[in-house]
Specification:
Largest sheet: 4 strands, antiparallel
Order of helices and strands: HEEHEHEEHHEHEEHHHH
Number of domains: 2
Structural class: alpha+beta
Number of strands: 8
Shape: extended
Number of helices: 10
Length: 311
């Protein structure tokens, strides 16, 4: 069960805020009803049997933009916690500067990729005339002046709502009922956010424990039989323990103070425990030293066992 601490959503509004990132891109896809109908008629298929969606330009043309957008969203999710249903995420004032630094970096990468794409847009359309041949339709393409509006990177920060902000004129009974609904919603959202922190810690620790145990099983290779000759030989098995296993834990525990919305001492204690017992050694040391690998694997399993009381 997740650890809960006494919390006041009104006081939390003084130390936390909501943030959202909206990134839009041009899909460069278009449904072609004419070709769809031709295929249906040709094969005597049902009218809803399929749809012809064509790529308006080469997929590679938008790859850099798509990658930059994905990296920005991933970074935003890592540095914030879930909140509500509208896409907003919550973060503490402690985490604000780090988030802004990352957002500026990711937005610049997105903008650079867009600025690289725009001058080549006309050439991509000309190539599409060849690639799509008879399915090419000029009207499917935004003008060169319109295409820029298809790409947008917006970041927004807003204060955390609190129940006593509700000031609409109504009876005391109705107002108190609505204020209670707001308080309940905020409390539920905070608890979900705290649960997300616990799950993140559990995920990276579990991955490390499993990876270290798997490495011990695989080291030295396995015997593989040749079905033709009947002979066996030792075959090395590629191990799944990489430096990212340790790096992911280090990155998470570094941002835990900024994600710990309620100042939960149990979260802080586990973060310090994880940092002290699981990140002292790099991946190469863990792979090369059986004793160290066994120690860290046991530490990870012990932490998971203790954490099970809270998650």
């Amino acid at each position: 069960m997740t650890s809960t601490q006494p919390l006041s959503t009104n006081s939390l509004a003084n130390t936390a805020m909501l943030a959202s990132v909206t990134i839009t891109t041009w899909s460069a896809r278009k449904y072609d009803p004419k070709v769809t109908q031709e295929v249906i008629d040709q094969h005597n298929a049902k009218s809803d049997a399929g749809r012809w969606n064509k790529m308006l330009i080469a997929k590679e043309a938008l790859q850099k933009i798509t990658k930059a957008a994905g990296a920005a969203r991933t970074a935003f999710y890592q540095l914030t916690l879930p909140w509500g249903q509208d896409g907003s995420r919550i973060l503490t004032a402690t985490g604000y500067n780090k988030l802004m630094e990352v957002i500026r970096e990711k937005r610049q990468a997105f903008d650079d990729a867009c600025e690289e794409f725009f001058p080549q847009y006309h050439d991509y359309v000309e190539q599409a005339k060849i690639d799509l041949n008879g399915t090419f339709r000029q009207e499917d393409y935004p003008s060169e002046s319109e295409i820029r509006a298809k790409f947008r990177f917006a970041f927004h920060v807003s204060p955390l709502p609190v129940s006593n902000d509700f000031r609409v004129k109504m009876s005391d009974i109705e107002r108190k009922a609505i204020e209670q609904q707001i308080t309940d919603m905020l409390t539920s959202s905070v608890q979900d956010a705290v649960k997300d922190v616990w799950q993140r810690m559990q995920t990276v620790v579990s991955h490390m424990a499993n990876s270290l145990r798997d490495y011990k099983v695989h080291v030295g290779g396995v015997q593989k039989r040749n079905p033709k000759t009947g002979k066996t030989r030792n075959v090395s098995v590629e191990n799944n323990f990489h430096s990212s296993v340790v790096n992911n834990i280090r990155e998470l525990v570094d941002i835990i103070p900024a994600l710990n919305l309620t100042g939960d001492p149990d979260i802080s204690r586990f973060a310090e425990d994880i940092k002290g017992k699981l990140t002292r050694y790099d991946a190469e040391t863990l792979k090369d030293n059986d004793g160290t690998r066994e120690l860290v694997a046991k530490n990870a399993e012990d932490i998971l066992k203790q954490m099970s009381q809270f998650v």
